[in-house]
Amino acid sequence: MAIPNPTGSAEGRIRALVAAVRRVQPELVLSVNIPDAYAAVERMRGRGEAAPRVVMTNHSIELPYVSDTKAWRHVIDGMVGTNRLTCRLATEWACLDPSRVHYAPYGVECPSLPVRRAPKSGPLRIAYSGRLDEGQKRVQDIPLILDRLGALGVQWELRVAGGGASEGMLRERLRPRIDAGSVQFLGVLNPSALTERLYDWANVLLLTSYWETGPIVIWEAMARGLPVVSSRYVGSGLEGSLSDGGNCLLFPVGDVQAAAVQLRRATDPKFRAALAEAGHRLVRERYTREHSVEAWDQCLRAIMAQPSRLTATTANASVAAGRLDRWLGPGPGETVRRLLKRRFHHNDPGGEWPHARSAPTLDERGFFRRAEQIDAGKPTCGRVLASSDAGA
């Protein structure tokens, strides 16, 4: 069902969501990066209306989303995280009641037996799949890793599936190899093409990320019997899935020499086969579609079994979005805006329907330092608090 916002304003978003909830009358509202859903339920509760439980689903380890967890913790009936670190940050950084924090991993289709791969002679076939981004994915490390791998005497070929803001930079860095035919950019592929043109072509999957909450690409590769060489990304610690030399090969984030050494180890077909078998077993035990669906079912049932938040607080009410709101207030301003058929114009969907609403209360670098400590199991000097908790 479409949820129209004729004015494109923040107040318009909340009204549209309230209207949608009234029409559908759901028992649960699950928000995937739509924080105005919490504002809508908060408003309905504040008016004494029958309102559903509201659930935050968090698929990231990023400050804006954890800040939203904190800002709306008086409204949220439950949060479901897809990574153990995401869940821990919700309790230790965002101060959400641990009884309302739940874990449900990603799930992928997984054949009952791993794909048996005949050893391929010639260059090591390396696959990369994902968003081409520097901040999270660190794709700028890929050319450096390949340079080190060549210096170790390993011939290689690379296929890249995906797109993003750093694609131009990466293409330029790899231009000589593209021209020579040893690097191919496949673009964004549908699932069947991804399997056929990337996973089933490759000898090994390379992941260079700084942080991840799965990642799905690793579980997909392992499900297909493709060995993985990955960074020890933030999010891999508490999750406790990846075992260096057991079901994959790991290297410190940003250590391009260590990554090259691990890729060289993956040139041994027998070793690759052992990694592939262990990786497939991991996915079968923890990350199948069936495991994920069962976990989500248990999480949502647990949330429904808990008392709903019945707060009438409106601490996060919509703020002024323009002159009409400043003159008349957000409510009357929105009413006049609709009568006049005035509309805000946004350049992208994230403008009209923002993915996060909170202003961070801790700098991003400091936040990730804390996240790294928690993920590594290091002491964090007691409860991890945002600065605004002082005196709360």
Which tags fit this structure?
six-stranded parallel β-sheet, 392 residues, 11% strand, Rossmann fold, 2 domains, 10 strands, globular, four-stranded parallel β-sheet, alpha/beta
Write structural notes for this entry:
This protein has 392 residues and is an alpha/beta fold. The chain has two domains: 10-106 and 293-389, no CATH class; 124-285, Glycogen Phosphorylase B (Rossmann fold, 3-Layer(aba) Sandwich). It contains 16 helices and ten strands. It has a six-stranded parallel β-sheet, with helices on both faces. The protein has a four-stranded parallel β-sheet with strand order 1-2-3-4, with helices on both faces. The model is unreliable at 382-392 (pLDDT under 50).
The value of Rg in angstroms is 24 Å
Distance between the termini: 40 Å
Q: What overall geometry do the principal axes of the alpha carbons give?
A: globular
Order of helices and strands: HEHEHEHEEHEHHEHEHEEHHHHHHH
In the sheet with the most strands, the strands line up as 7-6-5-8-9-10
Calculate the mean pLDDT score and round it: 89
Instruction: Name the poorly predicted regions.
Output: 382-392
List the topology elements.
Layout: H1 10-24, E1 28-31, H2 36-46, E2 53-58, H3 63-71, E3 78-81, H4 84-92, E4 101-103, E5 124-129, H5 141-151, E6 156-161, H6 167-173, H7 175-180, E7 183-187, H8 191-199, E8 204-207, H9 216-223, E9 228-231, E10 249-251, H10 256-265, H11 269-286, H12 289-305, H13 323-328, H14 330-340, H15 349-352, H16 364-375
Parallel strand pairs: 1-2, 2-3, 3-4, 5-6, 5-8, 6-7, 8-9, 9-10
Helix pairs in contact: 1-2, 5-10
